[in-house]
From TrEMBL:
InterPro entries: Peptidyl-Arg-deiminase_porph (IPR007466). The lineage of its organism: Bacteria, Pseudomonadati, Pseudomonadota, Gammaproteobacteria, Lysobacterales. This is Agmatine/peptidylarginine deiminase. It comes from Luteimonas soli. PANTHER family: AGMATINE DEIMINASE-RELATED. The keyword Hydrolase applies. It holds the Pfam family PAD_porph. Keywords: Hydrolase.
Length: 343
């Protein structure tokens, strides 16, 4: 059973800041750094219209460069704070803190980060939460180290005790654990009392083993926004159709179907013959807005309309994310929201 004092806030609840890490020549972005920097500038500009951005920087030179680029783009620098810390890569959704409310304090869950099952070197990323905690980045909080591999992109909560995740990812990380065992562990650590599993859904070019944040996400008032595929000729069609049927069969806590918001399917994007994982489900909810990954596709406008319906009253802000999917992730993967009061 979960601790009754603890609660895992939904992403659409009030936030104090968004945590990101600036790309530099020592990361996997090196080959296309100029392109991805433009996305980062657009991302920070969008965040700081609504709230603060905490930007991890690897050293003084990276900080000076990032500060100059952002200032020259007329970003509101009063809402930008730089945090010197070591990191291997910039996917903070997976290496950053998963934050629970504990009455008037915060519990920073520090799960093991293994580079998505040992695919990449991740020793510095695995120490990121501890490093930020020791630097007193967070207010009124304490860190709980958990010897269990889990990435933030693998889970999604409605803020009311229901978790959504995919069997493929959790089974890949923990092949000896049963679904019942994984449900119990996740529910206990994350203060949830229901774990909903999807058995279908994947994206070519995704190396996370089907993170839920590329496929399906909760929205307020018992809604689920998910990536659909309406092209029978596309290699994703059967899997995403099966996933849509699974989602339609899910029930809310009081036994009703969820309100469903299918996202449009963009045209295939390839890089040197490799299909890239372009998903509109990888959006980020912030105070007063939803930041939407835009791919320069005709479907961008339709995706914005769907997100506007799912998150009424919030401005939908497109962020150009085509450079990101070259490294197999998108907008949500780069970011971690920090609940109001944590910084």
């Amino acid at each position: 059973m979960s601790d009754s004092r603890l609660r895992f806030p939904a992403e659409w609840e009030p936030q104090s800041a968004i945590l990101i890490a600036w790309p530099h020549a020592g990361t996997d972005w090196a080959e296309r750094l100029a392109e991805v920097e433009e996305t980062y500038i657009a991302l920070v500009a969008a965040i700081t219209r609504f709230q603060r951005a905490l930007v991890c920087v690897a050293d003084d030179d990276v900080e000076a460069y990032a500060r100059a680029r952002l200032a020259s783009a007329r970003v509101d620098m009063d809402r930008v704070e730089f945090l010197p810390v070591a990191y291997d890569d910039t996917w903070l959704r997976d290496s950053g803190p998963i934050t629970l409310r504990d009455d008037d304090r915060f519990r920073l869950l520090d799960f093991r980060f293994t580079g998505w099952g040992g695919k990449f070197e991740a020793s510095r990323d695995d120490r990121l939460v501890e490093s930020l905690d020791k630097a007193q980045t967070f207010l009124n909080s304490y860190r709980q180290s958990i010897d269990f591999a889990l990435e933030g992109g693998a889970i999604d909560t409605d803020g009311d005790g229901t978790l959504l995740t995919t069997w493929q990812c959790l089974h890949e990380r923990h092949p000896k654990a049963t679904r019942a065992e994984l449900s119990e562990r996740l529910a206990g650590w994350l203060a949830q009392d229901r774990v909903l599993w999807l058995d279908h859904g994947y994206l070519e070019g995704d190396d996370t083993d089907a993170h839920i944040d590329t496929l399906a996400r909760f929205a307020p008032d018992d809604a689920i926004v998910f990536q659909a595929c309406d092209d029978p000729a596309d290699s994703h069609h059967a899997e995403l159709q099966a996933m849509a049927e699974e989602i339609a069969a899910l029930r809310t806590r009081d036994g009703r179907p969820y309100r469903l918001f299918p996202l449009p399917w963009p045209e295939p994007i390839e890089d040197d013959g490799r299909r890239l994982a372009a998903s509109y489900a990888n959006f980020l909810v912030i105070n007063g807005a939803v930041l939407m990954p835009a791919y320069g596709d005709d479907a961008d406008a339709a995706a914005a309309r769907v997100l506007g319906e799912a998150f009424p009253g919030r401005e939908i802000v497109p962020v150009p994310c085509r450079p990101l999917i070259w490294q197999n992730g998108s907008l949500h993967c780069l970011t971690m929201q920090l609940p109001h009061g944590l910084t």
